[in-house]
């Protein structure tokens, strides 16, 4: 990465989109609205290209202008509490800048340090991102990064970070092909979302998209679930049954958490990938299938021995890989994600997707946003989704969003340092044996984590596959697949389609419930 900007390397259209002239990976200071009295503006951004072209940039109520992807006209902050007089960012050299108060009259702080006369912002801080608070009403997150990408596109990927842009590019390169794809990333980074995006851009769009959640399959039935079974193959097989491969014929099969597959399943998967044929349990004849396989894992499969994961299968699945960045490495995307999630939950609670606007007493405070921005997010985007849901539900009837103290404690066990913005590593999860988990402990953890299987696994210190196994043995719990269609339809009707209420009522995974409803043709 170059630190020299003696000549301008970027041009910006009136939509705020970067057009690279010479070096698309060159770093550029970008300001993102992280907090605003109008929370519908979270995630709007602008490149501070004046810093690179002219060596300075004014910041005030009206300047710079921030852009969205739905409007070609930029807009200043337009907040009465932000001064019309300007403070000034001045380039000292390379990617080091001086923030000068000038005649700016309102309170200002940078990473919690009050601006008196001037503050120096070095390159290391800017590469991590700094928080510029303009009073109690506005927060800008300023970060040096490659050219900004779109906030959201037709892939459904939200964010302007370089990591998200790379994911978009890789999807575009591989989507039209029929090669298997292995999506790798920590839990909650959106692996299924990426699989859906690949499918939407492929020639198989409109054909079946089947999700096979490997850890949720009973080991004794996993082979028949994937490859089908003929009548009489085993007790209870009263008719011929299609497997996931047959159901996905002409379409796409998404194998979630492929690292949890048993040795038998791995062997048959390798054969299916190589021959495009599957043999149902109890049959001697192979079914020809035309299926594109996309797999996902958060495990280091290369480090596992041959007895854990077959390397030939790994090589076959990973002919093309897409790596998803953790949320802590793309904090510039948090404001836009926060806005989208708040809108979604607000729509369910209040019936409107337009978030409340208050310039006198903001509904969304800078202090709350600072806590969100500084959290380590071990559960990544899924954890952020859950937190915003809790925020909206807990704040029903209030004029301000309030964070539950227990939720706040879970977020603040690791923080961002004021000088560099570097995220400290969260405490290592203590691993335990599934046999050490009592039935009461399992039930309590599931309730604490709102039946999020990965979060429950992290709390208990076991794998997600082990959580599913313990659920099967628990006398009060059941898997989503064990619930009769009639009971699901009744719960859907009684809860008016609210997945959160259904999750609590049925005591099952929200993601599993959503997949089951969709497989029944219910628009959830």
TrEMBL record:
Alphabetical keyword list: ATP-binding, Nucleotide-binding, Transcription, Transcription regulation
PROSITE patterns noted in UniProt: SIGMA54_INTERACT_3, SIGMA54_INTERACT_4
Domain Sigma-54 factor interaction: 157-393
Entry-linked Pfam families: AAA_lid_14, Sigma54_activat
CDD domains on file: AAA
Keyword Transcription regulation: yes
Domain of life: Bacteria
Name this polypeptide is given: Sigma-54-dependent Fis family transcriptional regulator
């Amino acid at each position: 990465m170059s630190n020299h900007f003696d000549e301008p390397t970027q041009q910006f259209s009136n939509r705020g989109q970067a057009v690279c002239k010479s070096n698309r990976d060159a770093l550029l200071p970008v300001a993102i609205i992280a907090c605003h009295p109008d929370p519908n503006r979270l995630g709007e951004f602008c490149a501070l290209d004046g810093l690179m072209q002219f060596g300075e940039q004014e910041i005030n109520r009206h300047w710079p202008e921030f852009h969205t992807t739905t409007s070609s006209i930029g807009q200043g902050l337009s907040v009465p509490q932000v001064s019309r007089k300007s403070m000034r960012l001045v380039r000292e050299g390379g990617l080091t800048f001086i923030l000068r108060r000038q005649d700016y009259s309102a309170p200002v702080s940078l990473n919690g340090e009050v601006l008196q006369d001037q503050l120096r912002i070095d390159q290391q801080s800017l590469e991590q991102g700094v928080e510029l608070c303009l009073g109690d009403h506005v927060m800008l997150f300023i970060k040096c990064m490659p050219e900004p990408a779109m906030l959201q596109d037709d892939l459904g990927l939200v964010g302007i970070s370089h990591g998200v842009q790379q994911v978009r590019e890789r999807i575009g390169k591989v989507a039209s092909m029929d090669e298997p794809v292995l999506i790798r990333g920590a839990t909650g980074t959106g692996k299924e979302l990426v699989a859906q995006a690949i499918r939407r851009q492929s020639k198989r769009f409109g054909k079946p998209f089947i999700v096979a959640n490997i850890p949720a399959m009973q080991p004794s039935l996993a082979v028949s679930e994937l490859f089908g079974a003929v009548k009489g193959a085993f007790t209870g097989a009263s008719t011929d049954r299609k497997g996931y491969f047959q159901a996905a014929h002409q379409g796409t099969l998404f194998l979630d958490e492929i690292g949890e597959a048993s040795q038998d399943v791995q062997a048959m998967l390798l054969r299916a990938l190589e021959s495009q044929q599957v043999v149902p349990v109890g049959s001697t004849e192979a079914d020809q299938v035309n299926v594109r396989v996309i797999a996902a894992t958060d495990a280091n499969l290369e480090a596992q021995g041959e007895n854990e994961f077959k390397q030939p299968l790994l090589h076959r699945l990973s002919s093309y890989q897409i790596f998803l960045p953790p949320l802590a490495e793309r904090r510039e995307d948090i404001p836009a994600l926060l806005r989208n999630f708040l809108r979604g939950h607000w729509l369910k609670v209040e019936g409107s997707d337009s978030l409340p606007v208050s310039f006198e007493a903001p509904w969304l405070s800078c202090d709350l946003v600072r806590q969100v921005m500084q959290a380590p997010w071990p559960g990544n985007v899924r954890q952020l989704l859950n937190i915003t849901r809790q925020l909206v539900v807990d704040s029903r009837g209030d004029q301000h969003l309030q964070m539950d103290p227990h939720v706040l404690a879970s977020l603040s066990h690791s923080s961002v340092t004021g000088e560099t913005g570097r995220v400290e590593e969260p405490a290592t999860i203590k691993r335990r044996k599934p046999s050490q988990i009592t039935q009461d402990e399992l039930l309590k953890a599931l309730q604490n984590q709102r039946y999020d299987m990965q979060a429950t696994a992290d709390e208990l210190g076991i794998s997600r596959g082990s959580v599913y196994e313990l659920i099967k043995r628990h006398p009060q719990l059941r898997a989503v697949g064990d619930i009769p269609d009639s009971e699901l339809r009744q719960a859907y009707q009684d809860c008016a389609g609210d997945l959160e209420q259904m999750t609590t009522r049925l005591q099952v995974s929200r993601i599993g419930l959503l997949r089951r409803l969709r497989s029944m043709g219910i628009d959830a």
